[in-house]
Amino acid sequence: MTRLTESVGESIFPIANSSTILETHALTRRFGKTCAVNNLNLTVPAGEVFGLLGPNGAGKSTAIKMLTTLLPPSAGGATIAGLDIVRQAARVRRAIGYVPQSLSADGSLTGYENLLIFAKLYDIPQKKRENYIQELLNFMGLQDAAHRLVQQYSGGMIRKLEIAQAILHQPLVLFLDEPTVGLDPLARSNVWELVERLRSNFGTTVFLTTHFMEEADVLCDRIAIMHASQIIVTGTPTELKASLNKEDATLDDVFIHYTGDLLASGANYRETSRIRRVAKRLG
Ligand SMILES: Nc1ncnc2c1ncn2[C@@H]1O[C@H](COP(=O)(O)OP(=O)(O)OP(=O)(O)O)[C@@H](O)[C@H]1O
């Protein structure tokens, strides 16, 4: 694999260089007659926080599942760190971290035990495991809760643990699917601060989806708005707001402008039920 990282003092994290780290070429996924992602063309430079926004059912999760090698494309393709997501899927998985919407931490284990399992899964040498885990627990502010069962954690703590699990192997790109859904405002701003620190301290590229426009505005260097399986517009939050030619335009205005009537384009029963389940377990 092309080496895009270098050590930062004693840190376990990589620093990525400024070249393109993620690229999609007409990436497409169909489910029967439904085209969930249609002809997606994206370029993400290393170190960027990139936000994929869109109403329920727009195709964001399907795009992330393809990029994380969990779902094969129907057509087109993508590379991450120069690696093909289909032909070099195993190597792509070593280069990325993924925090799905659904629960990825085991409530019947402690935070430490969850991290230990991931350290073993990622083949982190036994000698290094303890250091890596302790460093991450400190970075996340979870050191005092390390030996408590995760079922006693708050939603915000679970999210932090899930992010810790996903970055234990020092990924170049971290995928976060709706990282703050179901969290209260304080926990949400803790996650925002964490993403900022990941980027600014370690240069981790972050690819996230969110429904929260404020979150996208605060966190993302660039945003793509997706609607009905296609990218409608891409730009920095400032560029997108300026594109409306409206004084004091917000990202909410931008979202409504490009995706139309939110109520009409909202989730169907299955999607609404899934989102509420996620919100409930983190809430
Ligand atoms: N496994 C599947 N089988 C059939 N259709 C699917 C499947 N997964 C997703 N879809 C459909 O593909 C479209 C895009 O779904 P997707 O979950 O990617 O959207 P999303 O933008 O992530 O929505 P949300 O914000 O609700 O997570 C929807 O019409 C959805 O019903």
TrEMBL record:
Residue stretches making up the ABC transporter domain: 22-253
Pfam families xref list: ABC_tran
Organism annotation: Floridaenema aerugineum BLCC-F46
UniProt-listed SMART domains: AAA
The entry's keywords: ATP-binding, Nucleotide-binding
Superkingdom of origin organism: Bacteria
One annotated GO molecular function: ATP binding
Protein name: ATP-binding cassette domain-containing protein
Alphabetical list of InterPro entries matching this protein: AAA+_ATPase, ABC_transporter-like_ATP-bd, ABC_transporter-like_CS, P-loop_NTPase
